[in-house]
Amino acid sequence: MKKNNEGRGCLIIFLSPFVIIGLVTLCLSIFNLYNSKKTNSWAKTNAEVQSLEFDHENYDGASSYRVKITYEYIIDNVKYQNNKIAYGYGMNGVDDHHNLYLKLKDAKKIVAYINPNNNSDSILIKGLNGSILGLLLFSIMWNAGVSIFLVPILMKSNSKLLFKKLIVIVFIIWSIGIILIVTKSIQIPLEKKIEVIETSTRR
Fold it and tell me: Do 116 and 41 form a contact (C-beta atoms < 8 A)?
């Protein structure tokens, strides 16, 4: 019995980093979902593009991309500067960063959405976007996969029936997730949610 408890404890310690990753991504997804919903009521204003850059990094053969932008706007005669594109947006190899860059490449003036409670808080893409949905889907699939190893350890009794049901549920979750990824059903093109007011051929 003691050896079984020790083995169970070692397995829990081994799985703890995977559990933490799952919890962090899930919390981040919920945070982004909550904040993206709030932006639907933000008022729009004209902003001027100050700088634009297509950032690329490579880690052990895996490429990640990101569009970096700085824009400026004036509210009540006060000038503000920000670089936030959308909640959930960041450096990754999933989003179509290239098309987003092409949309902004010649932009001189664009629409920005301002937080009515804080004029320094702004965003270029309000509402839900593919970055948020992608992270949420990853989190659900990740946590489902981890549960296959974690749930049997935490079960007080060795229930084969419960484990079989868990396998079926995880299989369904992963099947749906793979279908959504392959068909790109959760992709909401970021560039289509950017509103360009004025372009410049000097860029």
Answer: yes
Q: Residues 160, 165, 168, 170: is their CA dihedral positive or negative? A: negative
Judged against a pLDDT cut of 60, whether residue 149 lies above it is answered with: yes
DSSP the chain: -HHHHHHHHHHHHHHHHHHHHHHHHHHHHHHHHHHHHHGGGPEEEEEEEEEEEEEEEEETTEEEEEEEEEEEEEETTEEEEE----TT--SBSSS-HHHHHHHHHTEEEEEEEEETTEEEEEESS-S--HHHHHHHHHHHHHHHHHHHHHHHHH-SS--HHHHHHHHHHHHHHHHHHHHHHHHTTT---GGGG--EEEE-TT-
DSSP per-residue letters across 60-114: TTEEEEEEEEEEEEEETTEEEEE----TT--SBSSS-HHHHHHHHHTEEEEEEEE
pLDDT for 94 equals 65
Q: Does position 6 have pLDDT exceeding 70, yes or no? A: no
Q: What is the pTM of this model?
A: 0.80
Give residue 4's pLDDT: 57
